[in-house]
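Thread amino acids onto this structure.
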């Protein structure tokens, strides 16, 4: 289902008390979330259970993990399995964030395994894609993103791919204050949707949420989110400030 989604990615920030306060504040400032919308909090692993508690009686709000392992269980010290996420009622997981790709060498093929195991346990992947600056400058961004989709998602059936949320996050716009223009975002989102349509058909492609990520703030969210192929955002820095993130939720279509 193609929901309009405001997803907070807290990354490796906040203490327990700060996280608890931020959730309390965001929830108290957020009016009802529409049926066509979803709000997702991707919190650090130690706060997943706490976040699930916060949103337990809220409609259309969900908790996401920021990562998962590709195996069910076993001798993988320090890792978190989707089975564990499932057992604490986490419903989404970010897979393939550019920071994981860069600092932990996660390849498209490895990410495909994570996508599979998440879907097997009924957890919806938020699959991140996006190009670095030199690729954008040479005009190779469409081809680059197409390869990411191909190598991590295209082995999925149509029924499976409908469970995936895609987040286009151009690396040059992450944490830099430099946002893609709404035209650049729309152009890439339309490209992603047309690639999905080529592989799975238009009807399926039209059911997939494609989020934009990279320096989304209260001041630019509305213009970006109102592009026809942009279905909300994956928000880093601005999701750590309650009023900012609430304004971003309110900017959803
Ligand atoms: P910023 O919003 O801080 O640029 O981060 C974007 C991001 O990486 C979300 O996953």
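Threaded sequence (253 positions):
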């Amino acid at each position: 289902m193609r929901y309009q989604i405001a997803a907070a990615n807290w990354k490796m920030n906040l203490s327990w008390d700060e996280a608890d306060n931020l959730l309390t504040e965001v929830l108290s400032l957020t009016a009802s979330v529409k049926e066509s919308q979803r709000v997702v909090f991707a919190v650090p692993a130690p706060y997943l259970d706490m976040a699930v508690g916060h949103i337990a009686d809220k409609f259309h709000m969900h908790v996401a993990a920021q990562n998962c392992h590709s195996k069910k269980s076993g001798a993988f010290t320090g890792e978190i399995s989707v089975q564990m996420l499932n057992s604490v009622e986490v419903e989404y997981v970010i897979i393939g964030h550019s920071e994981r790709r860069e600092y932990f060498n996660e390849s498209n093929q490895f990410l495909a395994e994570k996508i599979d195991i998440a879907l097997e346990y009924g957890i919806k992947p938020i699959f991140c894609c996006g190009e670095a600056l030199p690729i954008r400058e040479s005009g190779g961004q469409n081809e680059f993103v197409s390869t990411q989709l191909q190598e991590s998602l295209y082995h999925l059936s149509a029924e499976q791919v409908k469970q995936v949320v895609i987040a286009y996050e151009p690396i040059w716009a992450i944490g830099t204050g430099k946002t893609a223009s709404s035209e650049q975002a729309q152009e890439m989102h339309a490209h992603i949707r047309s690639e999905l349509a080529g592989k799975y058909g238009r009807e399926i492609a039209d059911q997939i949420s494609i989020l934009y990520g990279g320096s989304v703030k209260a001041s630019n969210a509305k213009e970006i989110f109102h592009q026809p192929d942009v279905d909300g955002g994956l928000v880093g820095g601005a999701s750590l400030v309650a009023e900012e993130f609430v304004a971003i939720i309110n900017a959803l279509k």
